[in-house]
Amino acid sequence: MEDEQIKRYARQIIMPEIGVRGQRELLESSVLVVGAGGLGSPAIQYLAGAGVGRIGIADGDEVDISNLQRQTIHAGNLGKNKAESARDFVERLNPDVRVDVYPFHLDPENVRDIVRGYDVVLDCTDNFVSRFLLNDACVIEKIPLVHAAVLRFEGEIMTIVPGNSACYRCVFSHAPPPGSVPTCQEAGVVGATVGVLGTLQAIEAIKLILGIGEPLKDRMLHVDLLTMDFTELKLRKNPECPICSGKVKEIIPEKYVESCQL
Amino acid sequence: MKRVDLRGEVCPFTFVKTKVALEDAEPGEILEVIFDHEPAVRDVPRSVEAEGHEVLSVEKIDEDEWKVVIRKRAEE
Hints:
The complex is a heterodimer of chains A (262) and B (76).
Chain A: H1 3-8, H2 10-13, H3 19-27, E1 30-34, H4 40-50, E2 54-58, H5 82-93, E3 98-102, H6 111-115, E4 120-123, H7 128-141, E5 145-151, E6 154-160, H8 168-171, H9 184-187, H10 191-210, E7 219-224, E8 229-234
Chain B: E1 2-5, H1 13-24, E2 30-35, H2 38-50, E3 54-62, E4 65-71
Parallel strand pairs in B: 1-2
Antiparallel strand pairs in B: 2-4, 3-4
Helix pairs in contact in B: 1-2
């Protein structure tokens, strides 16, 4: 480890849970962040700061002025692709990090190729089709996934270790009917709320990489930041889950519309 | 005995660099660490002991210069 790296990561190297060895593990690790929006922005910021050696960033959208209330890493990049804008931020923050940019939306055809090869994937998407697609691809490819979602002052987060803990589809077999659940666009969201949840996702990724602590496996943490109630829901693998049970072994493109039911 | 010269370093880098040297050393190996930052002479021994290493001696060797001898713990 170079002198500059010892200084950069001093606060982490000091900790017994990380040390020099853990820092080297982080520098050799890779995390894919799907969605460089409200959740992805804080997650990318802290993963890059921590020295995760390779960060993949997937997002097909462009930075809009209405994003900046919560997506602070995109400052000054109006109109730019969000994945590319996020790469600018990471390069300014930490040159140790290599960024692989996917400036387009994940779809049933490309998702498995993109998630493959990463140590951890973060689901920072904003819609049910993407969540199911990412869950199913990560379970098939056996890559740990950290899901989070946010609305107004509330959020949820769970960690999925394929073959070991309940997956998103074990908990939700299909998406709610379109229009029945409001989106952030309709219902609103406070920037600090996505900041909390995206930051929790970054912490979960770091724990999974280092093999420390207790990731949110078979647990969903629901937070209401208006009342500051943090509630943990116990989850169980569904033996009938078509993805976890191995019944469905491929991504079937026509399933990823509306209900996403398999 | 491996000598680690940390003159010119201040906290927290005195501890961080001691820790880096300890992680690179063999189990049971003895390191001699030189500081010229007085707070480190109080803090580093306590911090390395908290991580299970043994502090064999702390000695003032010159005006504003100290030597701390540490034995790396036997196992990870």
